[in-house]
Structures are given as C-alpha cells and as structure tokens.
Amino acid sequence: xxxxxxxxxxxxxxxxxxxxxxxxxxxxxxxxxxxxxxxxxxxxxxxxxxxxxxxxxxxxxxxxxxxxxxxxxxxxxxxxxxxxxxxxxxxxxxxxxxxxxxxxxxxxxxxxxxxxxxxxxxxxxxxxxxxxxxxxxxxxxxxxxxxxxxxxxxxxxxxxxxxxxxxxxxxxxxxxxxxxxxxxxxxxxxxxxxxxxxxxxxxxxxxxxxxxxxxxxxxxxxxxxxxxxxxxxxxxxxxxxxxxxxxxxxxxxxxxxxxxxxxxxxxxxxxxxxxxxxxxxxxxxxxxxxxxxxxxxxxxxxxxxxxxxxxxxxxxxxxxxxxxxxxxxxxxxxxxxxxxxxxxxxxxxxxxxxxxxxxxxxxxxxxxxxxxxxxxxxxxxxxxxxxxxxxxxxxxxxxxxx
Length: 402
Prior knowledge:
Elements: E1 13-16, H1 22-32, E2 36-41, E3 55-56, E4 59-60, H2 63-66, E5 70-74, H3 80-90, E6 95-98, H4 104-107, H5 112-118, E7 123-128, H6 143-150, H7 170-192, E8 200-204, H8 205-210, H9 214-223, E9 240-244, E10 250-254, H10 258-267, H11 282-287, H12 289-301, H13 305-315, E11 319-321, H14 325-329, H15 332-336, E12 340-345, E13 349-354, H16 378-385, H17 390-399
Parallel strand pairs: 1-2, 1-6, 2-5, 6-7, 7-8
Antiparallel strand pairs: 3-4, 9-10, 10-11, 12-13
Helix pairs in contact: 1-7, 10-13
Protein name: Formyl-CoA transferase
Pfam family, one: CoA_transf_3
GO molecular function, one term: CoA-transferase activity
C-alpha cells in the first residue's frame, strides 16, 4: 500500500518567511514531521542562508540540511502586488513563521491584525533578537551576541582567559526547537478548544538559553553567587570532566548522581570510597574535588580508550569518547539509528544531512524532497494553488514581484 502519511503533522500548512537559521530551523523540524512548508523568498536574492558557508566551491553546504522538505516561492511582499498575493497565501495557512525586527511587518501593512482579518485561525510564530517588547526590542539580534546576552557565554572557558562563544550557531538551533514547540502547542490549543482562533507566539533569541539556566538564577537569588567561567560542570558533580586515556585519546565522564559514582568506585576497585566521609556523597566530593579528580585521572590514564569503555560500560558508568565528525561517520550506532542520511542535490549529486528526529512508531517523519532551488515551486503554488496564469506570472516576474 502506498504511504500517504509522512509524519504526525501531515496536513498542517505552514508559511515560512524567515531567514538565516533560528526560525527557518523550526520550520524545517515541522516539515520533517510532515507539515507542508512553503518558504517565501525575495526574488533574485532568496534567503541569506543560501550564501552562508561552509561551501564546496560555490555551493553552500548548510542549505541542503536546513531547507529540506520545504517548497520555495519568490515574492516581494514589500510591493503592493506582492502584498496582495501574500494575503491570498495566508488564507489557507495554519502557521506563519517570521523573524523580522519587531514592527517590520506592521510597517509593511502586514501586521497580525491584518493577517488575522484574512485568516482568523492563523497562528503567527515570531522570533526576534530580544522579543516584541522591552527597551531592546528594536535592536539587531543574532545568535552569538544573543548567547552573550543570555548569560551563557559568561560561563564558558577558563577563569584566566576571556569568555568563549560557541563555535557554531547553538542559540539559533535551540531557538528553532522552541519555535517548533510553540507552533504545535498553539495548533493543539486552537484545534482542541471550541471556537478557538489563532494567536501570536513570540520570543527573543536569548530567552531560549536563559530558560535553561535555572540553576544560575536560583543560585544568585539565594546565595548572591556570580558563577564564573569553567571548562566543565564545575560545582555540579564530582567527578566530572574530560580525561585522557593511556593511548592519548579523550573521553568525557560525569557522575551526576551518587549511584553513578558508586558504580564508578566499583569499576575502579575503590570500594573504600563508598564509605569514606570525603567521597561518599556528591556534596562532600565537591568539597574534595581535587582529590577525587586525581584518583579518576590516574585510573583512566592506566587504560586505553577501548579498555576504559568496555570496563565502564560493564559497570553502567556513563562515559563517551569525544568524537570528531569523521568518527561519527564511521560509528555503527549512528549508522544503525540512521542519524546521517543522503539526499539528492541538483549540482552535487548527493549530499549527506542529519536524519529525522525524533522517531515516531506509527507516523514517522521523512525527508520527502531536497532543499528547493530559489522559486522552484512558483508555478505549483502561485499558479496551481492561487490560479495565476502564465501571462500574469511572467508580468509579475518582469516587475520583480516574484
């Protein structure tokens, strides 16, 4: 039987007018789980992400993974004719995702009040640097500055060196997850409450990581402590950190609970540590962390990575090698989980991208089609769905509207 369901969100219609990473990533997550996502891009220019590295020659390599499962139409929504077409697109859409600076859509005459008048059921997900309210609402916002503003960067690095920013767009991707979460939550409310209409869901980039820092907030509130930079889980668990094995490889080991440490003590043949008042609970181990670390360092240094992994796996102690992307490509677990899959590419032939997560037993998501070329679906959507004729589309293209 031919499969007609490609995920739990099959049938949901989404319009993605956002650019770069955070909001578009949220739209892609929804598309992976079956939503029909139409990406609206500026004619002859497209999403700025199309020009962001890394590259192979002139081909951007982030685009195939971040824009898969979307359809692309070109439309200049600044223009009067473009605005008219946009409002026609909005009529049958469940969710609109945007990430312009606050006030931009309103300036173009496309604020939520205008859109809701056309489609009362419309949900609008708005991502911006600092949110739609507050004194910083109009500031330009990108992921790395947003990470600094969130308090996260202040914690990263070594105490005797400057703070370290994440080496990739961490905040953007986390915010994208929140955007997808917001969309499905608003959809659930709309569709399970009688007479419920659409609504606006919005957040600032920095808020996604700030929400994860509850330990930092409570600690300052109650203890007045300003936590500084640390390369690991300082003040949380002992032992925890990065360790070097006998064969010069690195692993990460964390004992976040006392039961985990108990298993580690057994694996190290140190049952004495289970009753020693310097080591028997996490709170006392943290006070004697230097001694604990010395014991663990010497234990790990005496084993190869393979020997260590086998021994700690046997005792149920969480440890992992620090994998490079080459290691990941060769790892059997990644292969078994289909965490890396291959998709078609119009010029590269094929390119590998992340697989779809999470996994659904009855309604699994799928990569239904590759990332689109700019305006690839103009005829299908503007012609097929909205009924524009070939002559009208040619005229609009000549004017730079599509």
